[in-house]
Amino acid sequence: MTETTQLRLTEIFYSIQGESAAAGRPCVFVRLSRCNLRCTWCDTTYSFKGGDQSSFDAVLEEIAGYGCNLVEITGGEPLLQEAVLPFMTRLCDEGYEVLIETSGSLDISPIDDRVCVIMDFKAPGSGMVDKNLWSNVDALQSKDELKFVLLDRADFDWAVETCRERELFGRVKDVHFSPVHGVLDPSLLAEWILEEKLPVRLNLQVHKFLGVE
């Protein structure tokens, strides 16, 4: 079996989608191993190393067992594995609605056009702002989404300035502003959004309030 038909997996699980425009919907999550970033607030550090090699067929069989049409590829950083590109195409070919959450530090242009890209540009509070690959902005499509995880007011101001300077509002389906869970008060972030009259979604990681993955 060739490397291009295998994925290194941390886990596959079925849960409520907690973020993005699909928040609240049942979803099958395919979490791939390895990440090229080390964000200060990361809540999935267990995916940085290890993982098990699985064939496309095995992963697809497990996904099918959940009887759910929505599938999200996440990590870690899923685009570190080249095999994820043909795997997502296969998912699309089999009729799944496919999302990928990626940090924005790696080129998204090779991703199948049918996949909804949720790109998570890193604010200064993450410690990874210098890893943002800004050429990805040109590859974004109207069906895609952007997410900014914000630690404090400085991150918020940076995100607003970035969205305005790079004309991100209106470029994609949704721009999400997400408070670092347990650090930035969501009600405070809501106030800032309203004060600035921003065309964004407040993203609250619904799954964490439910106590699920």
TrEMBL record:
One of its GO terms (biological process) is tRNA queuosine(34) biosynthetic process. Keywords: 4Fe-4S, Iron, Iron-sulfur, Lyase, Magnesium, Metal-binding, Queuosine biosynthesis, S-adenosyl-L-methionine. It catalyses: 6-carboxy-5,6,7,8-tetrahydropterin + H(+) = 7-carboxy-7-carbaguanine + NH4(+). InterPro entries: 7-CO-7-deazaguanine_synth-like, Aldolase_TIM, rSAM, rSAM_sf. It is an enzyme of class 4 (lyase). Its cofactor is S-adenosyl-L-methionine; Mg(2+); [4Fe-4S] cluster. GO terms for molecular function: 4 iron, 4 sulfur cluster binding; carbon-nitrogen lyase activity; magnesium ion binding; S-adenosyl-L-methionine binding. Binds 1 S-adenosyl-L-methionine per subunit. Signal peptide: none annotated. S-adenosyl-L-methionine binds at residues 41-43, 76. Substrate binds at residues 16-18, 31, 74. [4Fe-4S] cluster binds at residues 35, 39, 42. Pathway: Purine metabolism; 7-cyano-7-deazaguanine biosynthesis. HAMAP family: QueE. Homodimer. Belongs to the radical SAM superfamily. 7-carboxy-7-deazaguanine synthase family. This is 7-carboxy-7-deazaguanine synthase. It comes from Bradymonas sediminis. The lineage of its organism: Bacteria, Deltaproteobacteria, Bradymonadales, Bradymonadaceae, Bradymonas.
